[in-house]
Write the structure tokens for this entry.
Amino acid sequence: MTEKVARYIPAFSYHWLTPVYDPVLKWGMREEIFKRRLISQANIRAGERVLDLGCGTGTLAILLKETIPGADVTGLDGDPAVLKLAGEKADRAGVRITWDRGMAFALPYPDRSFEKVISSLVIHHLTAENKFRAFQEIHRVLKPFGECHVLDFGRPHGPLGWLISQGTRHLEEVKENFDGKLPGLLVEAGFKEVTETASMTSVFGPISLLRAVKY
């Protein structure tokens, strides 16, 4: 695996910023509002196996498990520090979630393992090459008619979103997101019915909700 492909960017680009990750998302990104919309869109049912790709400190996975207790939830992240925090948060919340360490572009699961894969504010951390590889991997681990639901930075839909994106588009690997390339990458990875279902604006840039289906 080349150094470019293997590149990993932790939350906020630096490990020393991990402790402030939750507060910034909560107050700067209206995190709970966005993530509840993502869970609602995914329409997860009891008995379905769901992967939270790039679970971070576990906020989305825990909220999902609390909302649909009968779902089988797995959280995956490449950072052992945030997985430790996620496990501690799940213990305090009294929910049972499987936490796995792995990379989005090399998922440690067999083919056709999940009914749903969800991801929140993760894809923009990946290089352009790894974005495509991650979507290929999501497609691989989904069962037939499984769904991928992504919440991440996306194409601006108005002057405010465009203005904010100009100030943040050079951070991390977010350029492809703001250029509106994620839907096309999903199609290239084999997904059908790729749709941007909603768009919102945050203090860091425009946010898109995407849905894609594996046939």
